[in-house]
Write a structure and sequence with these properties.
heterodimer, A: 133 residues, mainly beta, five-stranded antiparallel β-sheet, 2 helices, 50% strand, B: 485 residues, alpha/beta, six-stranded parallel β-sheet, 19 helices
Chain lengths: 133, 485
């Protein structure tokens, strides 16, 4: 039995992917380290499991979105097809992160840009207790 | 396989928790190496070292999952880390987390996540009534959620003895494993006695300075009180033989040198024949010994008539050093009959008189503002206690007051419409439209009874039981009453 008392902690993330002229690109950074990067995501859901060392700032960088052509509207202006990435879950050390609270409601990414979550404690339980209860 | 069974905090009780000792025995009987530990007492003792302000905040967090002061986060993490270390030091393959009440859910979640973080390969099994908010609830949301999150691997509901054996045999299809459909045990005598060898009894405060070893003599109940969830959980009353119980008591006395026992079930006198046989053995044991070496015990006790509980029974209760927890529930005879407690006021007085005559300490359980009690009944209840003050601390050593709760899926909840009751979001939040007694009035009645019953409560009892009872029953009725009144 191997016991891990160090700061590395399991990170589990799930996403919904919207396609319209392909998908958005996604790069996930833990501080400056690239945890995952995708130019194209072909599936409609994406699950990523990684290990990160705390404390760390997790940054999601999305790209490859041209709002003029990658969002299709019907005659009433209603979106009928969109290129987007929606983060549906983060578990840090198996504890679910309150995405709405930690991303200030920005869980649906329909534009190129970046969003960050700062896991700024050395221990995942400490971070959850201070930020996520 | 090596399994560590853990009693998960948080319980106010300073008494040993039985489940890990029971589960350890069963696992060992199947050839597995097993450890049964009660970390509740360690966590409780550690929390008690903090100032009242911090202590209250920590308990509020563990019980109600609210952390208003994040500066306490590092204390909580240290406590969880320390217990994680302790469990992992045994190098188990499986950790069994036992939750006695829902108040253990927060700590269980932190502990499970930390165990999986520190040792991802460890298998975590969860069980106990505390996985659900109510004993009889069919709701497995909590354990299913933890399973989905990967914090636990399996859970067991209901009677866990046979299910644990099947689980250890990797038969995950057995009823009760990862499901809410479980089988009641038929024969309670067939199971090994709890093994407390991993418990450090010096850590417990005990009752009246005496550490009591838990013992279970039955499941279910012979009565059918409409408010009770026990009879819904265990449909049939089952009991152990006097011989089996007595052998277990002797075994624990010889092993631990502790002669005080706490019966952990709904009633000790469900089967009078077995109960008398056990009393006879205790009396025979005690008769030739100085008091300090004698057996003593406490347990729930149902009221019966003087013919059924004659004076010689009280003699035996006295000689066996019994402390009785008496579920009187209401001072109003009519209300008691309505709730299913078929004993009259003379029967209650008989018990109080006999308790006084034979020096048998009695703790009375009273439900405050039962749904069918009127304002006149409130007044009668107060007078009833005032008239019985002669029993205060002689024989009655405490009156445990609790707000009436209407627990889902009990007979009382099924009769709610007939009684004209609107139900709120918590079991103690309800309103009888026919009687129209507000939460404010009920709360005042509780306050009045606390004052009136104060002379009955011994300081020690007050510390051990009554404060806990009152604080836990500081119900949300007032807060949520506006939704239903």
């Amino acid at each position: 039995m191997k016991s891990n008392k160090q700061n590395p902690v399991e990170l589990h993330m799930t996403f919904n992917i919207g396609h319209c002229n392909g998908s958005m690109s996604l790069t996930i950074l833990a501080n400056d380290f690239v945890l995952a990067t995708f130019e194209q995501i072909h599936q409609t859901t994406l699950t990523i499991d990684r290990t990160v060392t705390l404390p760390c700032k997790l940054t999601f960088i999305t790209g490859n979105k041209n709002p003029l052509i990658d969002t299709q509207l019907d005659a009433d202006g209603k979106i009928i097809q969109d290129k987007f990435i929606e983060i549906t879950g983060i578990q840090l050390g198996r504890f679910p992160v309150n995405i709405y609270k930690c991303l200030q409601g920005q869980s649906y990414w329909g534009l190129s840009g970046s969003v960050s979550v700062n896991f700024d404690e050395p221990n995942f339980l400490l971070w959850h207790l201070k930020n996520n209860m | 396989m090596k399994i560590v069974f853990v009693a998960v905090p948080y319980l106010e009780s300073g008494e040993p928790i039985m489940a890990p000792a029971v589960l350890k025995s069963i696992a060992e009987s199947q050839g597995h190496e097993s450890i049964g530990i009660d970390i509740n007492v360690e966590v409780r003792n550690e929390i008690l070292t903090y100032s009242k302000d911090i202590r209250d905040k920590l308990i509020n967090f563990l019980v109600h999952k609210r952390l208003d002061d994040t500066s306490l986060a590092s204390i909580i993490v240290n406590i969880v880390d320390k217990q994680t270390d302790k469990i992992l030091n045994y190098q188990p393959d499986i950790v069994g987390l036992s939750l006695l009440t829902w108040q253990s859910q927060m700590f269980a979640e932190l502990l499970a996540a930390n165990l999986k973080h520190r040792c991802p390969s460890i298998e975590i099994l969860m069980g106990g009534a505390g996985m659900k908010t109510e004993l009889i609830s069919r709701d497995t949301t909590y354990c299913e959620r933890l399973k989905t999150l990967g914090m636990i691997d399996h859970y067991i509901t209901g009677d866990g003895e046979q299910a644990l054996i099947e689980y250890l045999n990797r038969n995950f299809e057995y009823p009760g494993i990862d499901s809410n459909h479980w089988l009641e045990l038929a024969d309670l005598d067939q199971w090994p006695w709890p093994n407390y060898s991993d418990y450090d009894f010096s850590m417990y405060k005990g009752y009246n300075g005496k550490v009591r070893i838990p013992i279970a003599d039955s499941r279910g109940c012979v009565r059918t009180c409409e408010f009770c969830d026990i009879i819904e959980h265990w449909k049939k009353y089952r009991y152990r033989s006097a011989d089996s119980l007595w052998q277990e008591m002797l075994h624990q006395i010889n092993k631990h040198g502790i002669t005080h026992f706490m019966f952990n079930n709904s009633l000790t006198n469900g089967n009078m024949k077995v109960f008398n046989q056990l009393l006879d053995r205790m009396v025979e044991y005690n008769v030739s010994l100085p008091v300090e070496y004698q057996i003593s015990w406490s347990g729930y006790f149902i009221v019966r008539s003087a013919q059924q509980h004659p004076e010689d029974l009280w003699q035996k209760l006295s000689q066996s050093n019994a402390t009785l927890v008496l579920g009187i529930e209401s001072a109003i005879q009519r209300v008691r009959y309505e709730m299913g407690k078929k004993f009259n006021n003379e029967d209650v007085d008989w018990h109080l008189e006999m308790g006084q005559k034979y020096r048998v300490p009695i703790l009375m359980l009273i439900i405050v503002a039962y749904p069918s009690e009127t304002i006149e009944d409130f007044a009668f209840t107060k007078t009833w206690f005032e008239d019985r003050v002669k029993y205060a601390q002689n024989s009655v050593i405490g009156v445990l007051l609790a707000y009436a709760a209407i627990i889902p899926d009990t007979e009382l909840s099924r009769k709610a419409e007939e009684y004209g009751i609107s139900l709120g979001k918590y079991s103690t939040v309800w309103f009888n439209k026919k009687l129209g007694i507000s939460a404010e009035v009920k709360a005042q009645h509780m306050e009045d009874l606390i004052q009136i019953c104060a002379p009955f409560n011994r300081e020690q009892v007050l510390q051990d039981y009554v404060k806990g009872q009152i604080s836990s029953s500081l119900n949300p009725a007032k807060e949520f009453a506006h939704e239903i009144e």
